[in-house]
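Table S7 (text form). Paired inputs.
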Amino acid sequence: MDSIFNTSVTQVIKQRHSVRNYANTPIAQDILKKLEDYLTTVDNPFGQKIRIQLITKDSSTQEFKLGTYGVIKGARYFLAAACENTDQALIALGYTLEKVILYCTSLGLGTVWLGGTFNKGEFAKAMHLKEDEILPIVSPIGYQGGKKSFIATLIGENTNKRKPYHELFFNQNFSTPLASDVSDVYFEPFEMLRLAPSALNKQPWRVVREEHLLHFYLASNKGLTKIDMGIALCHFHLTTIQNHIQGKFITLDASKYPQNKDFTYIMSWTQLL
């Protein structure tokens, strides 16, 4: 995994931040070639087909109004991600696009997740969206630079804030927070999950640890939360691979595991010993 990013996964995750203002500088051709090659091989552990396309604002796309409603300034390149309209596909989309975004970070490129503030109809035309696909997310990519838009300035730095560890991770049940100093091999994967971006920075996911089983939950099934879950699972999974923790994602009978009226069971992870 390190060979993909040319550095540790954890370092790339910590380097990633939201960029809403881009310099009027073309991305170097060798960098674009690396990115396009990576898009042909990037995968996910959920067996879902996710289509991610690099779209460039140039003469070939001038017929499309690839707008972001004033949120993004100066972007010439975008990643558009499409999938089937199912819960599992949306989770896989979040996982897969975050993997690509982390790869962009390792190449020195800025990115930011856009779920509602882009012209979906025009982007759909530009990537020739299929009848069985939806286009919930795009991300501009490029070199950070220039002044922020007025809207981006209003958004401010709140997107960098994160909930504390004990509010996200639990031991055996939802009544017992999991202390970071007793998380064992999962401390770093959990910490990287904690740093994952999410819509409106709500961090809707929770994790309950039961011995060698980890159960992942969502606070809401609405909006972009399934994609948020996929992003978080990407951070977790890539870190377990880096740290040589063997395991796999599985779906269990939710009624047999910790319940909470405020959270919906999504899936589990079992460690392979």
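Next pair, protein 2 of 2.
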Amino acid sequence: MFLIKLLRNWLTTFGSYLFLMGRSFSRPERMRVFMKRYVKEMSQLGVDSIGIVLLISFFIGAVICIQMKVNIQSPWMPHWVTGYVTREIMLLEFSSSIMCLILAGKVGSNIASEIGTMRVTQQIDALDVMGVNSACHLILPKIMGLVTIMPFLVIFSSTMGIVGAYATAYVGHMMSPEDLTSGMHHAFNSWFMWMSIIKSLFFAFIISAVPSYFGYNVEGGSVNGRAAPWRSASRRPTPWCRRAYSSCSPTCSSPNCCRNAFPNPLNHQPS
């Protein structure tokens, strides 16, 4: 019974996700507005992530080069093996997979929090009331922007990893730069670079689409996703309320009277 319920919930969530993606990938109503948001999302999700990509890729490339040199020291191994292994790891695994997993935390939380805040504060409801396709207006620029900028981040990550490896050769004197360069050039297959870029496109779509779904369908907030009622019993009446109490007749029967709107929480007696 538990497995059936779990499967039903998963299928319901997956169907809701597909329905939301169908709404998102529709033609934008105003292309100029879409292009502005598209460029903004590329800057916010991609350009703002250059710092963390540079920092992590540089040190990962340096650490890989050091570990390969220390652990593969053998008279039977050629000197260019360290550079060769460093290049393959950066191209095939780190820049396209591990870096995307690291960016999933930063970019995913950014997207989910932004759209979730708009849902809680009823900004998405306002777009729907105005007849705007809120899914296309909010989600499509984020997906397209991240998918566009992610290949450049992958190439930048690979470059910084190789720069970190050369830093260990020149500064740490772990190996000669000539041996490292020889390993970098050995048996280079350009398809590995294209495969890394293709992998990053799938990661970029997942990183942007899944947080968008959970942010768009968020629930909760102050009072179940809505602001607290303005007639709460804990709210003290404003000076306007006191003036209204003092100026209104005790026998007033108007439905707009302040005595009908406020239950007189301070037990204020009209003067």
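Residues 81-120 form the longest helix (40 residues).
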